[in-house]
């Protein structure tokens, strides 16, 4: 029997080794950069979505106000300027824009729309400066002007702002020439609430506000009263 020994084979495979400290630090830094980039992108997308929601909400507010005023005009018989029959007093600056009469004799109550800036007469977390207000005149045309005080009437919309200066309009003159060109009607309004009274039955209404990035949010509509 042969008991000779077979020479042992020497393994040429190296034993596995772990990552070095430098490699771990590089991997951690790379992962951190990737996570930070993803987080920044997510925050940016969330910010864009929030701004879009705010602008969409403001657009809906303007749409509701336009719809309310339009329906009121359609139920009226006569459209006229409000500045000759009304005075706005008190600490809040106010500007009348137009009135709606139920008959040409003006013996019935009239709807009066006016703009009011409350930034100089107090503040509220619920209402922002630049209000559209609606009240009713109870005295006939020809009587002493009705005095509109405080926040008389009902609030239709807040946070109105002028559309100028902006990319669309450089000034009030620029806006007026676009919205109510000379000869097309009587221009009236202020602060983001404007009207172009074309005749006693037809008026063009314009409302504007500003978005999160100071972009102009606007809507306009041409409406006719039902007449007699």
UniProtKB/TrEMBL annotation:
<feature type="transmembrane region" description="Helical">
    <location>
        <begin position="21"/>
        <end position="48"/>
    </location>
</feature>
<protein>
    <recommendedName>
        <fullName>Prepilin-type N-terminal cleavage/methylation domain-containing protein</fullName>
    </recommendedName>
</protein>
<keyword id="KW-0812">Transmembrane</keyword>
<keyword id="KW-0472">Membrane</keyword>
<keyword id="KW-1133">Transmembrane helix</keyword>
<dbReference type="InterPro" id="IPR012902">
    <property type="entry name" value="N_methyl_site"/>
</dbReference>
């Amino acid at each position: 029997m042969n008991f000779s020994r077979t020479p042992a084979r020497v393994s040429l495979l190296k034993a596995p080794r772990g990552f070095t400290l430098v490699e771990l630090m590089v991997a951690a830094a790379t992962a951190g950069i990737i996570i930070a980039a993803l987080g920044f992108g997510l925050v940016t997308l969330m910010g864009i979505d929030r701004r879009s929601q705010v602008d969409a909400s403001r657009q809906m507010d303007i749409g509701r106000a336009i719809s309310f005023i339009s329906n009121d005009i359609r139920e009226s018989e006569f459209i006229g300027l409000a500045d000759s029959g009304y005075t706005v007093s008190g600490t809040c600056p106010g500007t009348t824009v137009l009135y709606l009469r139920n008959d040409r004799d003006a013996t019935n109550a009239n709807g009066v729309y006016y703009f009011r800036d409350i930034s100089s007469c107090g503040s509220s977390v619920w209402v922002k400066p630049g209000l559209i207000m609606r009240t009713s005149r109870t005295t006939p045309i020809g009587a002493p002007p009705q005095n509109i005080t405080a926040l008389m009437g009902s609030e239709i919309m807040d946070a109105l702002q002028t559309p100028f200066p902006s990319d669309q309009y450089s000034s009030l003159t620029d806006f007026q020439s676009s919205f109510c060109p000379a000869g097309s009607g009587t221009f009236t309004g202020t602060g983001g609430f404007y009207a172009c009274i074309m005749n006693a039955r037809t008026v063009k209404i314009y409302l504007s506000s500003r978005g999160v990035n100071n972009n102009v949010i606007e809507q306009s509509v041409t409406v006719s009263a039902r007449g007699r």
